[in-house]
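quick one before i forget lol
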Amino acid sequence: MRIWAILLAGVVLVAAAAFGVRHYGIDVAALAGLQPAAGKGETAPRQAGQRPNRGPTPVETARAQSSRLSDDVEALGTLLADESVAIAPETSGRVARVLFEDGATVTEGTPLFEFDTDLAQSELAEARARLKLAEANYARNEKLRKSGNVAESAYEEALSARDVARAAVVSSEVRLAKLTIAAPFPGALGFRSVSEGAYVNAGTPLVQLDKVDRLQVSFSVPELQQAAVANAAGVTLTADALPGETFTANITALNPAIDVNGRALQVRAELDNSAMKLRPGLLVRVTVKGPEREAVLVPESAVVQRGEGALVYVVADNKARQVRVSLGKRLDGKVEVLDGIAAGDAVVTAGNARLSDGAEVEVVSAAAAAE
């Protein structure tokens, strides 16, 4: 019976302690002598409804960094040959000889095709014979004219016949010359589309000739970025086909009209390709470098989005000051702050989610720069 009485008393004591702490903040255990009361050097029991004093909020900081940035414009472009033409005959005829190998590099004036010249040579021989007769007739009438034994009309007719014969010879020589097709400028040839002995009509494309020692890159930018392109400091290109290599170009022309369908501005730039690494038709990634300017960068983790705006906490004298900011470019884990933050300011990068303006903080880790 005594054991049961002791157990019952213990249960009553625990229940009373719980009820007292929950409703009245009374430390029943201390009153019962089971725990020493708060004395010197001890923390007094917390009153009901009182929150504990947590102290300064631990935070990590980094220094805002000054850097030079440029407002670059990025686009996809296509490489074009500086000059490009489909070689085609001016007259119909049979291909007698092909004078090049597919893909060959040629200089200006290099013969590419020879057409059958038998008919043209016959016409030239006939024209020269007619010219010889016309010149002889003119010379005879000229002598008679000096002696006054020929009518003026006969002399003029002989003069006209001589001039017509001369023109016929020149015309025949030109037709004969056009049966040999030469390269109009230096460049690289493509694949020929005809073989020797084929009869082709005037204007039929025979082979493509591209001038590739210099190339053009064609790309488009949104109409809102036309000012940045017009004031570009330079253009750099990269190609997925040539990883790790960068090429430079210069903008040469802007289309005077905006494309109304895509609201884009067409741009042309020119680059040196004397190393022959690039080819027309290649897809390239274009970066138009804008003028450089001074900027302040902070880690992205320092920016807290609240509502429709962004803010950054700056630590000074162990207190966090809330600064509303406008953001600019983002790059490599950093973000540009357009106002409110100066280079060298200590900004909170961790522990800022629940901070408030003026809150006391304890810096537990600080970085020297915004890296």
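fyi Helices lie at 2-24, 28-31, 118-147, 152-177, 226-230.
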